[in-house]
Amino acid sequence: MPDIKAIQTELRASKIDGWLFYDHHHRDPIAEHVLGLDADGLSTRRWFYFIPSRGEPRKLVHRIEQGALDSLAGRKQVYSGWEELHKGLGKLLSGSRKIAMQYSPDNNIPYIGLVDAGTVELVRKLKKKVVTSADLVQSFEAAWTPEQLDSHLEAGKIVDRITQSAFERAAAFVRDSQPITEFELQQWILEQFRANGLTTAEPPMAAVQPNNGNPHYEPKQGASRPIRAGDLLLLDIWAKLDRLGSVYYDITWIGYLGARVPDAYAKIFRIVREARDRAIEFVGESVAEGRAIHGWEVDRAARETIRKAGYSKYFVHRTGHSIGQEVHGNGANMDGLETRDDRKIVPRTCFSIEPGIYLPEFGIRSEVNVYVGERQARVTGAIQHEVLALLS
């Protein structure tokens, strides 16, 4: 069940008259999450749920799916035909003017822009001003409980340990002149997850050059490279405790299968590290000073460092993403490239900072997680300061 009072408090603080939820065929998972609805429930007809800033919530459901919102508080209206729906929607929104929906102006934040344009037009025809629910979603979908923060920290200790063990395993195979592929190392990491009470929706990434030059490389059985002496090994590993409500921990580290890291690799890592650290510092200083910042500003802090070093065209993705019960959560992303994420970074949220430089010959990324409290931001796990020389 959603915390109606908390939502109404946030609506009044934001000077919004109400939050309108709408779904059809499970197009809006945010609505399902915030309202606590069954993701597998019947949804072949349109439904609307309106939480006003004051007073009782209201429902509009189809006659043949009248029970769709029965788990939620509020008065129910039913409709059959489209004219009845339009009339019912007007009644549902009566007394309100400014309405939040899962809508993003100019589709700046496609993760929020889940309501179709026609439905937004329909609400506007009722002389309502539609505004984005992006910051409301952060408050009720991306902000962590103390228990979730604890689950993140616990998972992080395990993931950090498995990551270092994976590097050691790759080095041991290379020393013994035994073949081990990227895929085999990935599968070993998954075995360690299972043995240590972790779970993940998608498998981790293990990549040597040139595959680590592809930010979303996926090693496949029978089609991945062997890990050999002289290789640069990138491990991108994310997982969470196999427990209800837990949240992810997501990191990327780099190791070199040799005794001395070549200058070319060390140089690029230094630039990436500087970009990462500049973004961390920007967030930390801003939060400590109580200064509001947005996702795109964090991206700019990291990207400008890489631009000044002359590698801007090789930094091809956003600086970071929100982290939650899904590895890509519903809070602000550190993004001024793929989108202009203008959501404020709010307390009790977490995100990755993961700049990278991807050359044709090899790629390097460094990733940490940053948790923002009321007046302090901190990296939640180990921080890599140089490429690991794995055979020293």
Molecular structure report:
The chain has a 6-stranded mixed beta sheet with strand order 4-3-2-1-5-6. Strands 7, 8, 9, 10 and 17 form a 5-stranded mixed beta sheet that branches. A 4-stranded antiparallel beta sheet has the order 11-12-15-16, with helices on one face. It starts with a helix and ends with a strand. The mean pLDDT is 96. It folds into 2 domains: 4-141, Creatinase/prolidase N-terminal domain (Creatine Amidinohydrolase, Chain A, domain 1, 3-Layer(aba) Sandwich); 143-389, Alpha-Beta Complex (Creatine Amidinohydrolase), CATH 3.90.230. By secondary structure, the protein is α+β, with helices and mostly antiparallel strands. The protein has helices at 4-13, 29-35, 82-92, 117-125, 134-142, 146-175, 182-195, 263-288, 295-308; strands at 18-23, 47-52, 58-62, 75-79, 98-101, 129-132, 198-199, 205-208, 232-241, 249-256, 322-323, 349-353, 356-358, 363-365, 368-372, 377-379, 388-389.
SSE topology:
Elements: H1 4-13, E1 18-23, H2 29-35, E2 47-52, E3 58-62, E4 75-79, H3 82-92, E5 98-101, H4 117-125, E6 129-132, H5 134-142, H6 146-175, H7 182-195, E7 198-199, E8 205-208, E9 232-241, E10 249-256, H8 263-288, H9 295-308, E11 322-323, E12 349-353, E13 356-358, E14 363-365, E15 368-372, E16 377-379, E17 388-389
Parallel strand pairs: 1-5, 3-4, 5-6, 10-17
Antiparallel strand pairs: 1-2, 2-3, 7-9, 8-9, 9-10, 11-12, 12-15, 13-14, 15-16
Helix pairs in contact: 6-7, 8-9
